[in-house]
Amino acid sequence: MALEFCPHLLKSEAPTLNLTKSLKVNLTSEELAEARRRLGREPNETELGMIDIMWSEHCSYKSSRQALRTLPKTGKRVVVGPGYDSGVVDIDDGDVIAFKIESHNHPSAIEPYNGAATGIGGIIRDILCMNCRPIALLDSLRFGNLESGNSKWLFQNVVRGIADYGNCTGIPTVAGEIEFDKSFEPNCLVNVACIGHGKAKDLVLGRMDRPRDIIVLVGGATGRDGIHGVTFASRVISEESELDRPAVQIGDPFTKKLVIEATLEALRTRKVTAVKDLGGGGLTCALSEMSNKGGKGVEIKLDAIHVREEDMTPYELLLSESQERMLFTVDPEGQDEVLQVLDKWNLPYSVIGRVTDTEHLIAKYMDKVIVDVPSKLLTNSPLARRTAKKPKAESNAQTPRFTNPLNLSDTILEMLSDPNVATKEAVYRQYDHEVGARTVLKPGDADAAVLRIMGTVKAIAVKVDCNSSYCYLDPYKGHAAAVSEAARNVVATGAQPIAVTDCCNFGNPEKPEVYWQFKEAIRGIAYMLKGLKIPCVGGNVSFYNEDEKSGRSIKPTTTIVMLGLIERLSLITSMAFKRAGESIVLVGKTFSELGGSQYHRLIGFEGGKVPNLIISRERASIRTTIEAIRSGYVTAAHDCSKGGLAISLSEMAIKGNLGLTIDLKAVPHLQSMKAYEILFSESSARFILTSPESQTPKLLALARRLGAPAAKIGKVSASDYKITMGKERLAECSVKHMREVWQKTIPQAFEMN
Amino acid sequence: MPQFTIEVIIENKKMARDPEGETIAKELITRGGFSKVKSVRAGKYLRLVVEADNEVQAQQIVTDMANTLRIFNPVVHTCSIRIKSEAE
Amino acid sequence: MKVAVIQFPGSNCDLDIFHVLRNVLHVETNLVWHKNFNGTDYDSAVLPGGFSYGDYLRAGIIAAHSPAMKHIKEMAKEGKPIVGICNGFQILIESGLLPGALLRNQGTAFICKWVKIRNETSNTPFTKTIRKGAILDIPIAHAEGRYVNEHDGIRELNENEQIVFRYVDNQGKTSENSNPNGSMDSIAGICSLERNILGLMPHPERASETILSPFSGSDGLRILSSLAQI
Questions:
Q1: DSSP type of residue B75
Q2: Which domains does chain A have, with CATH numbers?
Q3: Please, what's the b/e burial string for A599-618 (b: 16 or more CB within 10 A of its CB; e: otherwise)?
Q4: B35: CATH
Q5: Where in the sequence is the domain holding B53, given as residue range(s)?
Q6: Which of A400, A639, C146, C167 has the most crowded CB, counting CB atoms within 10 A?
Q7: How far is B56 from chain A (nearest CA, A)?
């Protein structure tokens, strides 16, 4: 569950006796009525508070879950689909991969260091719950332009937060993406994903199946974190004490590391029957979800919970969002064994109750029943009725055609230095991306990170992608493009794309234009997933990412995490040019499609049509690249996207410290395209491959057979970087100079002022 | 027994340099226009509550602890121990 | 040859070094929880990298007080080879088994990258098969790796040939640019006076299989293989 700071939560208020009047809940009057109807009576204050949180947007997905159900979620590799802590996919030989992505946008916008850190903390727990060892992290970050002091501050501290937390827990952060755009000012986006490795036979689901199992609360002691003044009974929350309590919790990666090892070790005893992490909605959410999934109930003693603050009320205990807590259900016969593991790791815990078969969540305090609610009531909120309305076309529908820039070489250099293109090395150097000794392709080596699966000859490729410029201009196509780009990114490393998980980031869904964006996004993602036969095994939704003052919302952005499977280590392919003399082959046709492009951003134009997506073209290019790599024809591969041909080629040259000679005439493209259009168009379904001269004819023949347009467009050279159109010289750069401008931009953003 | 609040401040010795302090001074404070702030030392601050008969004893307990447990590394750190103004 | 890899709360690279020792070098190795460690059962011990106790107060200081370190000190006295990698090096320093201190990197940020180190002496059990002056490609990943010592301390290390590895550039020379963290005298690793304790900041276990190396090498193995032979 996303640990989101909900801006609508209550201000502090002195508790009074008649609480339903003075307790400001976010439930609408219809929802309140529905709650009463289902319960068969008036809920008491604590129960009402629980329903309020469980039926909030971030816990219930009431605005999004209907649309999300349209995403394809089945496939022969799907072991656990959406609805559990994380999706799980089969990668043969009894190995499985669990993965999930989550957002931590609002906390990070307020307190970037701890907001990002606790975001990492949260996503790790979701993987642990399945009994998989977390083996990698990915981060997808979006900030306003770096000229803004605020965005620079957020950027620096989000990165530090992710670095410190990830490094301390010993999980490598291996891939990511960073976008800078004014729509993310001040609402930055911090999406973090975790990948875990486990065995199918050891998988555990966060579900209570066995009545009489013991419930153990493990980890950090419970305090009043996350409760914004909503308490009753004995305490009055003054303004002062409200300020005392941080809106964003402090991350504790050391405790998290202990929780990881203790949980995995406890699971190895085979006496822990289910695990769930406590995030948004605290104990209430974890207990109700676990019991509802298994069709069971729970009975707990609130006074048994280990706490770190005094006089906590039942409400506070049930809804606290204190960090680093897990819930275990334990076979009564294994209780001692499991608790011994927790003692070894010095983790605090409390035995708080039992699984029952009543299907109710019953909480007692000193033997007095405080709460008695059907689990299903809490987990199955009514759907929110939202309307979708397409906004009036703000930007130009047609893409204007410009004249060629005066100096294409300068344009390429300028583009390379743009923060959206420049190397993010200054970021990933702060992440320990090699701990675990699994990272074969490290950040920067290729389009995706590649991790070997220990004890096998296999590897996985992982990447997270979204181009928010496309998504803004056309949420349907833009989001379909995110899927196709993510797929190409893993394919370029030698992998077969096998599953995705997604994180939706949108503005206020109560606004019809925003809700329209969301529905279009899901439609686009579904379209491409179905076309590529890739299932979505889970996801996350973050709404309300809008500037409170201006009401302006972020560009719609759904980040896609793509998982690819590489059958054997020898297939792993990186992007750097390898050897002078090798052929450069472009797979896929180039059209004049610059809407949302890096080039348009450079010349200050927003608008136009984003690249088209035709499933057959996507599949043909992907198949060609996969087969070509399998056949041994390919020495380097790179997906062609942001910045088009020019930038993708430049990246390969810079990485390989080699040059190129390219003739644009050889690029499969429409007639009458101008040079800048061919170089900077961001048409989909394209790959740049290098191949030894002797293998090139076979590569081209393969492409022909599979229906992908492909042509040799030039050669890798020892040092010259030359682009021509027939005899006409278009661009000449020094690779050394290109590398300099490409490397300079992001480190500047880390200087403190 | 009364309780005393004792502060422990660990700083780098001059020879060990203090890149964190220097960076804060140069990149943040000076660039930020606060030219009256001449230098910055970064260090570690611990605030301890100690049960003892009197201030002197409390301070001694902390001194012993700092030395025995190597709260600071004498090769590169200085460690100052002082009583906070109020006794609790 | 039986090697113990000590696990402290917060150790991260224990499984990595264990994998190399057991699966690559085929050495008899055990992962041992620090509280259960008994040095008499082992011929050698490795203190792995990570963030023992969260690096709280100072990297390595809390682990230095673990009961396991009493055993390590015994083993060291008996001349058994002990290797401390990254956090392990920090723990050896904080235990007083190696001299000096490891402080925050000069650039203050965490750095994860491959570096070149030069072997400065073949006169240790760990480097006896490595030529003096040989250059090794090994990655570092740390925030507190800057080696610092008093002037006399550095002089003694030099005189006693206790500096085992130095950071160098592509040409094998020490320089400011090739020193990733500002360590005095470009020190990447040192050994004890008796020579059987080695502490180094780079991670040889991440450079022991060609698949993981950007240079397709396995230079880390040249150091770790010593544990298979002693």
A1: T
A2: 19-56+204-379 (3.90.650.10), 575-753 (3.90.650.10)
A3: bbbbeebebbbbbebeeebb
A4: 3.30.1280.10
A5: 3-87
A6: A639
A7: 32
**How large is the C-alpha radius of gyration of chain C?**
16
Strands (E), A248-395: 272-277, 297-301, 325-330, 349-356, 360-365, 368-374
CA within 13 Å, CB half, A155: 31
Cα angle, residue A531 at apex, residues A525 and A537 outer, rounded to 5° = 55
CA C21 remoteness from chain centre: 15
* Cβ distance of C141 and A434 shorter than 8 Å: yes
A750 chain-B contacts, CB cut-off 8 A: none
Give the Cα separation of A273 and A207 in Å (integer): 8
A271 SS3 class: coil
Based on its alpha-carbon atoms, the radius of gyration of chain A, rounded to whole angstroms, reads: 26
Domain boundaries, chain C: 2-229
Instruction: Name every chain C residue with its beta carbon within 8 A of the beta carbon of B69.
Output: 61, 65
Q: Output the furthest CA–CA distance in chain C (Å, rounded).
A: 45
Q: How far apart are CA A254 and CA A165, in angstroms?
A: 9
The Cα diameter of chain A in Å comes to: 89
Distant-in-sequence, close-in-space partners of A110: CB < 8 Å, separation ≥ 6: A5, A247, A248
Quote the crossing angle between the two packed helices A644-656 and A735-750, to the nearest 10°. 90
Structure confidence at residue A225 (pLDDT)? 80
Burial zone of A573 (CB within 10 Å; 0-12 exposed, 13-18 middle, 19+ buried): buried
Report the number of distinct structural domains present in chain B: 1
Catalytic residue, candidates C34, C71, C142, C203: C203
Q: Chain C closest CA to B64's CA: distance in Å?
A: 16
Q: What is the mean pLDDT of residues A162-174?
A: 98
Q: How far is B82 from chain C (nearest CA, A)?
A: 18
What does the block give as tokens for A733?
């750069």
List beta partners, residue A720: A734
Residue-level pLDDT at B30: 82
* Range of lowest pLDDT (A435-444, B11-20, C95-104): B11-20
- Is A10 a residue whose pLDDT tops 80? no
Are C100 and B75 an interchain contact pair (Cβ–Cβ within 8 Å)? yes
The CATH architecture to which C2-229 belongs is 3-Layer(aba) Sandwich (3.40)
A636 DSSP β-pair partners = A690
- Nearest by CB to C206, which of A168, A437, A569? A437
Q: What is the rounded average pLDDT of the residues A499-518?
A: 96
CB contact under 8 Å between A753 and B24, yes or no, is no
Average pLDDT over residues A190-198: 98
**Predicted confidence band at B1 (pLDDT cuts at 50, 70, 90)?**
confident
The residue among A497, A519, A422, A485 whose CA lies nearest residue A749 is A422
Give the CA dihedral A484, A136, C89, C56, nearest 10 degrees.
Answer: 120
- Beta strands of A550-630 (E only): which ranges? 557-566, 583-587
CA distance B51 to chain C (A): 22
State both tokens at A36: 């009463």
What the block records as the tokens of C117 is: 């180190």
Most distant CA pair in chain B: distance in Å? 50
| Helix ranges (DSSP H) in A45-104 | 45-54, 57-60, 65-68
| B20: closest chain A residue by CA | A752
Determine contact: A156 vs chain B, CB below 8 A. no
Residue with tokens 């083993």: C75
The mean per-residue pLDDT over the stretch B75-80 comes to 89
CB spacing of B76 vs C101 below 8 angstroms: yes
Name the residue with higher pLDDT: B42 or A525.
A525
Mean pLDDT across the stretch A132-139? 98
Q: Please count the other Cβ atoms lying within 10 Å of the Cβ belonging to residue C31.
A: 15
Find the CB nearest C112 among A346, A431, A445: A431
Chain A residues touching residue B32 (CB < 8 angstroms): 753
